[in-house]
Please model this.
Amino acid sequence: MISEGRVEITLPRGRVATMRYDRPVDVTPVLKGQAPEEVMPLVSAIYGVCANAQAHAAVLALEAASGSAADASTQRARALVTCMENLRENVLRIALEWPKLIGGEPEGPAVRPAISFLPRIRLAMFDGTDPFALDAAARMNGQAALDVIADAERLLEKEIFGEPLDYWLSRRGHVGHIDWCVSSKSPAARLIAHLADCGWMHRADIDCGSIELPGANAVALWPRQLARAGGLAPFSTDAAVPETTLFSRRARDGVVASLNNAGLGARFLARLAELARLPGEMRSVLEGGAEPKSVSEYAEGAGIGIVEAARGLLLHVVRLHNGHVDRYRIVSPTDWNFDRQGIAVRCLATLDGHHDEDERLALAHLIVNAIDPCVAYEVRAG
Model:
């Protein structure tokens, strides 16, 4: 199983924070020479984090490189599987990790039912077959899928929000969020209340006006540009790397936009907005009212697959030669956001001049978790 990289952050006293990101191992040597149908089992085996999203992006890239495509029903069914993985991962992170950020204990038992949602939706959509096989065909049981989505919505309302999702999504501004924190005792509400009590809702705010955000539509990541050189060229070091987080995905949602900043409060609320929107979006995809938010495109001699994973946009690029893999690159959300010109560095730079070292350390932990809750990382004083 391949690690998705590691981040080390140092906070020298009186100086700007420094960050080192050790990127994951290159998968090309593992996949080079493999036929497309041999790649999928390997991708599924080597990735533990967001495994369904990884398989989804891989199959989209391989289908594009091979000149094939799944039918519309299968595309929708695959999208539902990935969406449910996003929901599960974010629910578990909120229950297990958010309490620890404010000195509390994990609250796993309350959200344990979320673990069953993903296998249940896979069964409802594909009846036990592999959703991400190159020859996959959906065998959709619509009612079973709706039942899983309804169970997920009930868990969110009870354990994460403490109120109906539509009501939470109608909240606006600082007053609306503080009112929620008073009325709800969930781990999510307690974290937002902690940020407000400490005066940290606006901390790590940066000007996103000059940064082109990918937004909710994965097509905005310019697939042809990413495919050049087989997708293997490094990011430019001359300009800021575009952000791809749940904040960039949900920044225009009213519940997030009403804060009118890009600080810690808005970033954690964006993760909650993702969760609150997912059940309705899944129903819409299931019923054909919305298209999957993914890309499968052939450009510049390479197949490209992009999906919205639990932490941001995930990209797979593959170049085939004589029907076998010649080059393969995966760009994870961590690669985007912890690049030396990425959003994490820019947010950490806002801590420069912060004189309380304990607060500075706590804020650095919050910044990392607001951007990418799954990355392996260490923060230490200089």
Observations:
- The first helix runs from residue 28 to 31.
- The chain has a mean pLDDT of 88.
- The first strand starts at residue 6 and ends at 11.
